Amino acid sequence: MNAGFLLVAAPATPLVLLLAGLLVPPLRRHLPDFLAQAPVPALVAAFLAMGNASVDGETLLLGMALRLDFPGAVLLGFCALLWITCGAFASTYIRGSADRERFSVFWLLTLSGNLGVFIAADIISFYLAFGLVSLPAYGLVVHDGTDRSRRAGLFYLVLAVLGETCLLLGLMLMASGADSLLISDAVGAIPSLPYRDLTLGLLVAGFGLKAGLFPLHVWLPMAHPAAPTPASAVLSGAIIKAGIIGLIKFLPLGTGLPEWSLVLTTAGLFTAYFGVLMGVTQSHPKAVLAYSSLSQMGLVITLLASGLVAAGVSAGDVGADHGADGIAQVAAFYAVHHGLAKGALFLAVGVVGATGAARIGPVLAVTAVIALGVAGLPLTGGALAKLELKGPLGGGLVETLVAWSAVGTALLMLHFLRRLRMAASADAAARPSPGLSLPWGATVLAAALVPWGLYAAAGSHDLAYAVKPGNLWALTWPILLAGILGWSLRRIRLPSVPEGDIVEPIARLLEPVRSVRLPPLPGVPSIVEAVGRAAAGIVVAAEAPVRPFPAAGLALLAVAAIMAFALAG
Amino acid sequence: MTGMLPLLILSTSLVPAVVIFFLPEAATRVRAAVNLIGALAKLPLVGLILDGVAAGEQYELRYTLVPGLDFLLRIDALSLLFLSLSAFLWLLTTLYALAYLRDGANQSRFFGFFSLCVAATTGIAMSGSLITFFLFYELLTLSTWPLVAHRGDARSIASGSHYLAYTLAGSTALLLGIVWLEGQVGPVEFAAQTGIAGADPNTLRWIFLLMVGGLGVKAALFPLHSWLPAAMVAPAPVSALLHAVAVVKAGAFGIVRVVYDVFGIGLVTDLGLGVPLAAVASFTIIYGSLRALNQSDIKRRLAYSTVSQVSYIILGTGLAGPTAMIGGLVHLIHQGLMKVTLFFCAGALAETLHIYRIQEVDGCGRRMPVTMLAFSICAVGMIGLPPVAGFVSKWYLGTGAIEAGQIWVLFVLAGSSVLNALYFLPILYRTWFRPATGTWREPLTPLPAAKVWGLVSPAVATAVASLASGLLAAAQPFSPLGWATLIVTRDYGP
């Protein structure tokens, strides 16, 4: 198959399905059945279209360009995979919902945008895809229409609109420095822009918001759990990666911007620890997972920040291929494992909810392996991701802090498993329908196997490195320590922090402001108004004789004609 | 032939107007036929000229009224921007109005003046000199009034008077400006400026203020805008005419002509008038959006939105850099397409379900999915999100502002985007996510299918056009963006 065609088909297929559904009402009812098929072309594209394909739609938007580089292909492939399994899960999950057609519409829109961000090579197409993955996701968050999800949706939408706006300004500033709208050209021009710091600040705000960077994260722990489970899975697994690919594509990695490196490292590490701290206070398993997601994305952002330390090199082993491309590659690898694992964990919440207490043993056991994998349990995909992460960070404080964050992650995952056990179905003998358990199983398999395949194909070390005793120990001690800590602290009652943590205090602070009712804005200054009224009075008086309008129309034409003749004469 | 085409185009609207005035009220079919034949005949003629002008052809008709006073029709690329918009929307608005006013009273008067308005707009677009422009501009002012007051109740008459008071005052200012200017430098034709720069700079500044102030009434520049929200009592097709096809566009188009073809960009910049104009436009953008937020009546909210959005055109004109100019010009088309859709939809809601206020749209997405989808597309476009047309305007205005060194404009655009989201997204939320709670009522007898089609299909057509203008923005030269680029690079390039 033509590789260029695949690049177009990947984001276009969901839209074509959507359009067909809108135009053909009988098809609309079956839209929810096609959620799993829509991402298939993207999966194919990830394998067949990488590197060599490019599409230039010169008449589209402001000149559309589609490319697929290595990090993009890796992320595209895994996202497609996750959207397929979650789509299958969703088809079953929403079967009873009255609004399932609406859900499908927003699902397909979001999907198209999510796939598009990895392929778009010009600024405008990227912004379009980013908008598509951001705003329609609102429809997924508020799907069940409860007060909780509507509140979460409101916060989500407000911040998403602000993020979009920041991003647009950043992109405009960035585009003004380059001759073309290709992202690669425009990024190269960033370091020499007159408004460099403003531009970078706006871009980081736009993308950081999506990736849950503190303090722009508040929507995330509210919105991810509020959505229906399959939507939570793609939100936390795949959609959040739109922020990461944005940073990968738009940060001038490999350029020396040490102050920005410091800012991003600090924010990333703070987010990583903050996510753990807030996560362990949560009681809803999906909220625990959401906090874990932003914590993990904090680590990825820390990694990306190491690409800005100095020109051409990263903080880590300079000799290895840890230049800008190397860092992007490692970030993509880490994101792939996190996405698949997080998807599997979210779906597990749905599966456990449909499983009786008597039957949840195997589900819990499998979930435990995946969950601890996120903390780097040896031989899991997560272990490979942690090993890859180490290289570019180099020694020093940052690497130590990243290593210790695994203790926090392990603690958070243990907390998740405990809360998950309590979420079992009230009916002790209930068993989940295959429509739920099979997609979940497929996601688990993908989370276990895909990282190994990727490591073997493109990892920076060989397989022996992954099982070196030193490395195994480096991966194991955080989990052991977390286990001991968790066991000894099990009786301590933590305060319960509401989802969205700092939102509540801020909202309380703003409460007096909110209750102030702004007086309606004044209209035109009153003098103008008065003059207008006086003039209007005269006109009203004058118009009375010509009220019969058809006569007025003819009279008007006649006067015009007479004037014309008079002037001509 | 090149001289006859402008006249032919003018007559496609003028002849139906005259014929319709003479038709008896009961001749519904004949009236519709005359109107549609005119509108349909106009499109191929405009297409022909588009093609000709793209190839570098000139179309000019000059008729000396008295020595030194020429009636001059001249079609350049800028004329066509406005001409093609009004021709396309005239056809759709006519179809819509035929359905909307079905069985209404005073149809001969309505459609007669409607065609007359479009004829005046056509004349404005094709005017080649200030005097010709003024003649048609006045014809537009007067022939719009009976439409604003069409319903004939006290509110309509009051808003009609409001409209006349404002626009006649504006015309007076404009006329004063024209007379003063021509007194200094002789008759002024567009696109042939030589003598103006020699005049006294302060005199020129006063003249500029008079002319832009006069034109600013129709363009609804703050503080001259208040007639526009008041005029929303008129039927929806009239709103479409006011907001998209003719009236506010005539004001904005006039300002573009004054800046580009009467003074010239260089002189406007030298006189230090560009940035203040951009500042007034920026203030109007934010002010209109803030006022829109306060409105609970759908059409009033849309009206304030127009106050805000039309100033994008003037903002781009004032910034005077090539990219910003493109952004402003292209918004003339984009705003027209999007806003006409929104008013079509608002009218369809009112006619079908008696929905007038924002609180009443709860759950109507299920009842009128096609209409509300069209509405949603254009609302998203107004916010400035791709791939709808509004994004293209915003992108060019933003990057153009950076190019012109006016970075503060970015924050005006950002503020406007956020405010647009604040006043459009709640409507979409109510439409698609709130359950229907009996805030609207079904008609006692179902509307005839022909009426439903007439109300919905024009909205679909303009929504599709809004989407296509954004999606295919880079298609040279016949996309709105392509044409705006052609205007700026060919006629006003550095």
Shape of chain B: globular
Number of helices of chain A: 25
- Encode the helix/strand succession of chain A as letters: HHHEEHHHHHHHHHHHHHHHHHHHHHH
Tally of distinct domains of chain A = 2
Helix segment count of chain B?
20
Q: What's the N-to-C terminus distance of chain B?
A: 32 Å
Uncertain stretches of 5 or more adjacent residues of chain B: none
Overall helicity of chain A: over 70%
**Helix vs. strand class of chain A:** mainly alpha
Low-confidence stretches of chain A: 314-321, 521-528
* Rg over CA atoms of chain A: 28 Å
Strand share of the residues of chain A? Answer: under 5%
In round numbers, the mean pLDDT of chain B is 91
First and last CA, distance of chain A: 75 Å
- Estimate the helix proportion of chain B, in percent: over 70%
Number of strands of chain B: 2
Q: Could you state the order of secondary-structure elements of chain B as H and E?
A: HHEEHHHHHHHHHHHHHHHHHH
Give an overview in words.
The complex is a heterodimer of chains A (569) and B (494). Chain A is mainly alpha-helical and 569 residues long. Chain A folds into two domains: 488 residues, no CATH class; 43 residues, no CATH class. Chain A contains 25 helices and two strands. In chain A, helix 1 runs antiparallel to helix 3. About 3% of the residues of chain A have low confidence. In chain B, a hairpin with a 2-residue loop joins strand 1 and strand 2. Chain B has a two-stranded antiparallel ribbon. Chain B has 20 helices and two strands. The mean pLDDT of chain B is 91. With 494 residues, chain B is mainly alpha-helical.
